[in-house]
Specification:
It contains eleven helices and six strands. It is of the alpha+beta class and 270 residues long. The strands form two sheets. Strands 1-6-3-4 form a four-stranded antiparallel β-sheet. Strands 2-5 form a two-stranded antiparallel sheet. The longest helix has 33 residues. The N and C termini lie far apart (74 Å).
C-alpha cells in the first residue's frame, strides 16, 4: 500500500513540475504546445533532436529550466518505477493484489483528470505566473492573452512540402487573409527567420510558416495540396470566412445597440 501511495505521489509531483516548467517556458516566448513538448521531453530524458530544441538550448533561461527538469526527471522516474515494481512483486503485504490494482487505477484516473482539466490548468498557470514574476527574473508575459488565443483561434506552425498548395507561391497570391489566416513569420530551410513578411515574400518547400487563425482553417491549409482541388478548398474556406465575418458583425452590431440603449431607470426618469 505504501509503495502505491509513493508512486502516486511521485506522479503527482512529476505532473506539477512539468506544468510549472511548461508555464515558465511559455513565458519565454514558446507556444504552449512547444513548451509542453519540450518540458516533457527534458523531464523524461527522451531528448528529441529538432530545430525547436536547438532554439531552447541556445536560450539561457530556457536552458536553465530544462537542466532543472533533467535533474529532477532522472530521480523521479527511477523512484516511480521502483515503487511500481515493489507494489506488485511484494506479495507478502496485508492487502490483496486486487485491492492494490483498484487503488492504483483509481489514483491514475484522478491524476489524469486533474492533469487534463482546463480549470486546473488556468488557475495553476495564473498561480505559477505570479510566483515566477515575484521570485524569478523571467520576463513574464501572457502571450496567449496578447494574441487572444481563445475559442477556436490559435498560433500554429506549418511546414511547406513540395506538393503543398502554398509552396512556391507569394503570400499576396495565396490571399490567406481572405481565409482568416495571418502569416506571422517564416523560417527558411537554412534557419533564417522572416518576421512580419510582406505580400511579395515567397513560401518555398521546407519553409516553416507561423500562422494565426481558426484551428479548422489552419488544419485545412496544412492538408491542402497543390492543384485544382487545392484551389477549390481555398474558395470554400474564403466563403466560410465570409459567413463567419457576417456573424461576427451581426453580433457586434447587436452588442453596440444594446450598449447604446439607455438604462431602464433613465427612461423612467425622463
Amino acid at each position: 500500500m505504501l509503495s502505491i501511495i509513493t508512486l502516486l505521489t511521485v506522479l503527482t509531483l512529476s505532473i506539477l513540475v512539468t506544468r510549472i516548467a511548461t508555464v515558465a517556458l511559455t513565458h519565454t516566448g514558446l507556444s504552449r504546445q512547444s513548451a509542453r513538448f519540450q518540458a516533457r521531453s527534458a523531464f523524461t530524458g527522451v531528448g528529441f533532436t529538432t530545430d525547436e530544441s536547438e532554439k531552447v538550448v541556445n536560450h539561457p533561461v530556457r536552458r536553465r529550466i530544462l537542466l532543472f527538469l533533467m535533474l529532477l526527471g532522472n530521480a523521479g522516474i527511477v523512484t516511480a518505477m521502483s515503487s511500481l515494481i515493489i507494489s506488485f512483486v511484494n506479495m507478502e503485504g496485508t492487502h490483496p493484489l486486487a485491492w492494490r490494482m483498484v487503488l492504483l487505477v483509481t489514483g491514475l484516473v484522478v491524476l489524469w483528470a486533474v492533469a487534463s482539466s482546463r480549470w486546473v490548468d488556468r488557475h495553476l498557470s495564473n498561480l505559477i505566473s505570479k510566483a515566477l514574476k515575484q521570485y524569478s527574473d523571467i520576463d513574464v508575459r501572457d502571450y496567449a492573452a496578447m494574441l487572444h488565443l481563445a475559442g477556436e483561434y490559435q498560433v500554429s506552425e506549418i511546414q511547406a512540402t513540395p506538393e503543398d498548395w502554398m509552396a512556391d507561391q507569394a503570400l499576396a497570391d495565396l490571399r490567406l487573409s481572405h481565409e482568416g489566416v495571418m502569416v506571422l513569420g517564416i523560417t527558411r530551410r537554412d534557419g533564417a527567420y522572416l518576421g512580419a513578411p510582406k505580400g511579395s515574400t515567397m513560401i518555398y518547400p521546407y519553409d516553416t510558416v507561423m500562422i494565426y487563425g481558426r484551428a479548422t482553417a489552419i488544419e485545412n491549409l496544412d492538408e491542402r495540396k497543390r492543384g485544382p482541388a487545392g484551389d477549390d478548398d481555398h474558395v470554400r474556406e474564403v466563403a466560410r470566412q465570409v459567413e463567419i465575418q457576417l456573424d461576427e458583425r451581426q453580433t457586434d452590431s447587436t452588442g453596440k445597440e444594446a450598449d447604446a440603449s439607455p438604462p431602464p431607470e433613465i427612461v423612467a426618469d425622463g
